Amino acid sequence: MAQAGKGKLNYRCPSCFMRDLDIDMFYDKEKDEYYCIRCQYTGKEKDVLEKNEMIRFRYRKMMERITDFD
Questions:
Q1: Residue 35's pLDDT is what?
Q2: Are the C-beta atoms of 28 and 17 separated by less than 8 Å?
Q3: Cβ–Cβ < 8 Å for 14, 51
Q4: How far apart are CA 43 and CA 7, in angstroms?
Q5: Which residues neighbour 24 within 8 Å (Cβ) at sequence distance 6 or greater?
Q6: Where does residue 49 rank: exposed (0-12), middle (13-18), buried (19+ CB within 10 A)?
Q7: What pLDDT is attached to residue 32?
Q8: What separation in angstroms does the CA of 57 have from each of 1, 21, 53?
């Protein structure tokens, strides 16, 4: 997705990302927080980064070929 004035970086909504939806968050300068236009999630930058890091465990082995199932 192209970044169109959403904030400093493209952050994915942690709530939507847990459901395998790739939704970018928007940044509200007045409240200094990020929000999702698809769900009700809002949060500060630190909170968004922490939750996105928790989700990454699902995809940590995605680029490795697994041949040993023992």
A1: 94
A2: no
A3: yes
A4: 13
A5: 1, 3, 6, 10, 11, 12, 13
A6: middle
A7: 92
A8: 22, 16, 8
Residue with tokens 């192209």: 2
**24-37 burial code (b ≥16 CB/10 A, e <16):** bbbbeeeeebbbbe
d(CA 21, CA 17): 5
Across the 70 residues of the chain, what is the mean pLDDT of every consecutive 10-residue run? Answer: 54 87 90 92 92 77 77
Q: What's the CA angle centered on 33, arms 30 and 37, to 5 degrees?
A: 100
